[in-house]
Amino acid sequence: MNSVQLESEDGVPLAVALSERVHWVGALDPNLRTFDIILKTANGTSYNAYVVRGSEGVAVIDTVKEGFANDFFARLESVADYAEIKVIVLNHLEPDHTGALPELMKRAPQAQLFISQKAQSMLKGLLKQDELSFTPVVTGDKVSLGDRSLEFLHTPYLHWPDTQCTYAPEEAMLFSGDVFGCHFCDNRLYNDKVGDFRFSFEYYYAHIMRPFKEYVVRALELIEPLPLKLIAPTHGPILRDRPQHYIQRYRQLSSPALHNELRPNQKTLLIFYISSYGNTRRMAEAIYQGAMQIEDVRVSLYDLEGGEVAPFVDLIEEADGLVLGTPTINGDAVKPIWDLLSSLAVVNLKNKLGGVFGSYGWTGEGVRLVEDRLRGLKLRVPIQGLRVKLIPTDDEIHECKAFGLELAQELTGARESRVINFADL
């Protein structure tokens, strides 16, 4: 049988047993097509919540989106009385996980709420209640349910500052929050029963976890040593078949590939440009030649007119420096540059080197606008952008080479400090 019984014969939602002591009490949202404005959900999503029963009480781990609270409470009531609930755990405070919390706390006022250290102020902001009883926890903290227990893992920024994971050692189950999740609704629930959700798993990682790769790696260091029979995320299939496979995939997605191709201490500088009449292209080529003078910098030159944006994002994510060349048209940088910049929101650019250059006909605002955007993306822009009016002269080509050299020197720490005249900015 491939089906999982989610309702009784008369249509009442039922809990699903993951083991004798653990049940899924979540809700399905198959008709959702956009999540948080930015994510497409071709198969809808699920809001996964769980119940763990011990000899001395019951724990509820996460809840559901408010509009699906009735399903959650019906499933919860099918396996537990409210008076038995000793513990409520929130791995993440986003509304799709906390929507049923206020009502749950009313129905089980004796339950103690456990949240991460960083979730404290966020909880009050979400529930708008000044008097809340809760216990903040960090990695290593535990709560006992008698013959079952829960251990907490501090996994911040996956994908909010408050996120954590909860581990049930006696069950070898990880309640992972958004980690290892995806927006894929299938009433068969388990990864070995549902349809092919690989695209959704990868898409979710790319848009939710990718900007926080360094935090993914830290979380994996906590998770990889754990004995695991099952991973129970808050969205998407429950991973009972080869759960380690999904951990390994996160490790692969979070590990830099470029570093294996570089010499020790070698830096990488990427130059992207778009050119209307060849003038910005000539500048780009000269900047490339200048940067190439530094042996420890691997320099690459790309014409945006000849490539798709997505592969460039992958390159930029692992590079040390990013230089953009744009003409100014109608007082602005051109669309391919903005398309590339808008795609960079999914990667971590903090403290990468940034630089901008371009040819212009009238006033040349494009370079300054792109510089501002790079700073907004947390790149360092220590060298003022280079602008050339119309066709670059031989002297201006020489300036471009010097500009490239200076950028490469900045990457290697060989550039001399300068006093900036703010009147020139």
What do these coordinates show?
The protein has 425 residues and is α/β, with parallel strands linked by helices. It folds into two domains: 16-254, 4-Layer Sandwich (Metallo-beta-lactamase, Chain A); 260-412, Rossmann fold (3-Layer(aba) Sandwich), CATH 3.40.50. The chain contains twelve helices and 23 strands. It has a seven-stranded mixed β-sheet with strand order 1-2-7-8-9-10-11, with no helix packed on it. Strands 12-13-14-15-16 form a five-stranded mixed β-sheet. A five-stranded parallel β-sheet has the order 18-17-19-22-23, sandwiched between helices. β8, α1 (69-77) and β9 form a beta-alpha-beta unit. The longest helix has 19 residues, at 394-412. It is elongated, with a radius of gyration of 26 Å. The termini are far apart. The relative contact order is 0.09. The model is unreliable at 419-423 (pLDDT under 50).
Keywords:
425 residues, alpha/beta, Metallo-beta-lactamase, Chain A, Rossmann fold, 2 domains, seven-stranded mixed sheet, five-stranded mixed sheet, 12 helices, elongated
